[in-house]
Amino acid sequence: MYVVSSILLFAIALIGQQAAQALPAESNRHLHKIFRYPTGTSTRSGSYIVELHAEHDARAVKAASAKARSILKRSVGQFSIGHHYDSVLKGFAVHANEDLDPEHLARLPGVRRVWPVRRHNIVDSRPVAHTSIYSGQHRHTGVERVMRELGLDGRGVKIGIVDSGVDYTHPELGGCWKTPGCPWQNGKDFIGDLHVEGDANPIIKPNPTPMDCYGHGTHVAGIIAARGPRVTGIAPNATLGMYRVIDCQNGSSDDIILAGIEAAYKDGNDIISLSIGQQGWSEDPVSVLCENIVKRGVVVVVSASNSGYSGLFTSASPAVANGVISVASIDNWEYTGTQIEVDGKLGNQTITASVPSNDKLRFFFEKPVPLVLGVTAKGSANGCSAFDRSFKDKVVVIGSGKCTVNEKAINAQAAGAIGVVLVIPEVQALSAGKTNSTVRIPVIAVDTSHQQYLIDSVTKGPATIAAPKRELVIVEDPAGGQVSGLSSNGPTPELAIGPVVSAPGANIYSTYLVANGGYDTKSGTSMAAPYITGVAALLKQAHPDYTPAQIRSTLATTAKPLRDPKTHLNIHPYQSGSGLVDAYAAITTRAQLFPSSVILNNTDIGTLTSIPNVHIPGSVRWARRTITIQNSDARRPVRVSLTHSAADSLTAWHANGTLAPPVRVWPAESSIIGDKNKLPQVFSVDSQISSSIGPRQHRKIDVIIVAPYGLKESERWFYGGFLNFELTWGGSGDDVQTYVVPYAGFNGDFSKLDVLAEPTSGFPQIVDTDLKTHDDLTTFGAAANNTLTLEYRLDLPSRLVAVTLLDRRNTTVGYLPDGYIEYATRNMQDEGSKLNEVEISGTVYTDHKLSKKIQVPSGLYRAQIKALRPFGDVNKASDYQTWVSQIFSIA
Question: Name one GO cellular component term (predicted).
Fold first, then answer.
C-alpha cells in the first residue's frame, strides 16, 4: 500500500533519467498533502475535504475549521465551512464560490491531506435480460432455510443504509418514521430535494426526514427488510436507519457521502450498506473512511459497481477499501412479467413481457385490441416526437430513440393510444423503465428474442394483442445463477481479490416509491450489496460477538463457487469472489478459516522437486501460502481434507496485445482444456493435514500453488481457483461442512507490465483540433488557432502518471496541463471516459500541484509520459514506463 506523503520525495527526480532533467525542487513542504484526481474525474470547483491527523477530537476539529475560516477570510472571497467529521475521519469540508487555492488549507496546522470534492452518481441499476421475482432467490442462497429452521430475522441488529432515502410510508417498509415499534429508528437527510449536483453551487437544504424522491434507496431497503406480503426482505425485523446522500436526480458528492457514512457510524449501526461507488483506489477518502470504520468494529458492505463490460480492474471505490465486503451480482433464477398474446399474419404467440412501467397501470386487455406500429408520417417509429395520426383505442409498438420512456408514452397517450409496447434492441432488456404520474396508459417491453416477431407482425398487419391475466406471472430463467455481465470485476489496483462474495442482483423485484406504483424491478450490484447486508445481519444476530473480519471471512469461506457452463471450470474469483453466498452454511459454521482469500501478487521461479509431495520438473512460477483453520466446536475434534478446483483464466488483452473488453476467458469451452499444465495446480506440504484438530484448537496448513505454465506469459493471463476444505467432526461421515478459499494471481511478473496502451492501439498520439494526426508537427505548431492535444490511454491502474514537456536538449521544462495524476484508474472502454487528454499550448506548470504556470518560448519540443508500473517505487526511475512523442513546434 502506498502513502501520499511519498509524492514529495518523488517530485524532485520525477521526470529525467539524468539530473539535468529534474524539475525545480518544490519550495513548499505542504504541497505533498494536496491530492489530485485523474483527468476526467468530475470535481466541484473550489470545494475540498480537509483531513486532519487522527489525534484530533471534536473540539480540535472545530478549532481547526475556525482557523481555516480566519485564514480564508483574508485570501478568498465567498466561502463556507461545510460538514465537520469528528469520529473516524477527522476533518471538515470547505466550499468556495471561486477557485480556492488548496495550498491555504494544506498549510493549516494538523492537516494530513486535502482532497478535492468529487461528484457522485449512485451505482444504479442497468437493464439486463429479464425482470425479477418476489423473493424466490432466497431458496438459492440459504436464506429461506435460515428463516424456516433457525427463525432468524435480523432482530436486535442495527443496519444503516447510506442511499437516496426511503419512502417510509410504504406499508411493507413499516409505514412509519421513528415511532415506537417502527423499523426506522435512525437516519437523516443530508442533501434535500433542491440539490442538483451539476449546478455550480448546489443547494443543500435537507428535509426533516430522509424521504426518497429517486427510488433507489427504497428498493434497497426492501431487499434488506421488507415485511411482505409481496416482497420479503432478508432481515425484516432489523432496526433500520436511512442516511440520505443522493438527490432526486441521482447526484451527490464526497463531502455529503462522508457525512452520511459518519452519521451511520455514530448512530451505532452494526452494519452499514453502501451502493455507491466510483473508479478509484483504496486511498480515496470514502474508502479510507470505510476502512477506518471496519477497524472500529462495524461491518461495511459495498456494491462492486456495474462496469463489468469494461473488463478487469473495474471494481469501484469504496468496494476496493481494505476490510469491506464488496459484492458481485448474480442473475436471478426466475423473473416476473406480463403475459401477452399477439395474433396476426405470422400466427399466434404467447410472450412474457416486462412488468409495467407503473405498477398502478396494469397491462390488462381481456379481449384482443388492435396492435399497430407507432410511426409518424415521416416514418419515425421512435416515439420521440408528437404523432401526426390517431391511435385511438390501439396499443402501439415503439422503438429506439434518444428520449425517455416517459416522453414516448406521453406522445402515444396524446395520440389516443391505450398502451405501449417497447422494442429497444440496443438495451437488450425486458424492462420498460419508469413513467411518472403524467402517463396514464400502461407501458411494457419485450426481450430481444421476441422483438423481430413483434415488429414483423405489426408491419405486415393487421395484428392484435391481448393480455388476459391481471396478475404478474413468474417464469423460470435458464440463465439464472450466473454472474451478471454488468457486475464489475477485480482485481483491485493492488491485485487483491474483489469482489469478496456474490449475491442475487440482476432482476430483483422490490419496494419502490408509493407514488410510482410501490414496486419495481432493478438490476445491478446495488441490489446485490443490500442482499449481503441482510445476510450479514442474520449472521450477526446468530453470532453477536463476531468481528467484521469474522463476518467477512465466514460469508466468503462458506460461499459456493459458481461453475462456468461453457468450460465447466469455476468462475474466476475476480468475477465472483468466493461464489454465491450461503446464509445457512455461514450461520451454522463450526470453523473459521483465515485468510479468506489468497493473493498471488508475487511468485517464485524455480524447480519444486525438493518439496515433499510436489514433483514438477523444470522451472515454474509458484507460491507458498498458509491457511489457518480454527475449530470452533467446543467438544469435538475435526479432521481436514483438501482438494482443489481450478477456475477459468482471464486476460484483459487480445493475443496481439490490444485491450479486450470484456475479458477474454481461457478455455473458451471445455473441449479445449487438454493439457493440465494450462491450469493452476495445488499441493499440500503438510503431511499431517488429515490428523484431527482438537476442540477450540487451530492448525496452520501450508500449500504450494503452481501457476499455469502451458499458457503464454506474453498474453498476460490471470489465473485462479479454489482451495476446497472438507471438515468432518467426530468421525461421522454425515457431520461434514465444506469451505473454500479462493486464490488468484498473475501468470508472470505483474510488476513488469506496461500500463500504457499497446502502441498498435494507436495511443498515445498527438492530434489537432479536428482530432487528426500529422506525420510532421515541426511546422504545424501549437499556436492560438492550432492547439495540439496529447491523447493517451491507461490499460492498467497506475499509482502515478506524469506528463511533461521536454525541450530540444531533452530537459524537462514543466508539467503539461492535467499532467500530474495520482492513483490513476484504467480507462474504461464502453463508457464516456475512454482517454486521457492533455493540452499542448505552450503552458506548463513547474509544480505537481499545477498551480505555478509559465509560458515556454517558441521552439521545438516533445511530450513525455512517465507511468508507474504495478507495485513500483515512486522514487525509482526504472519502475516507470516512459513514452516520448515526436517533435512538434510551439509558436
Answer: extracellular space
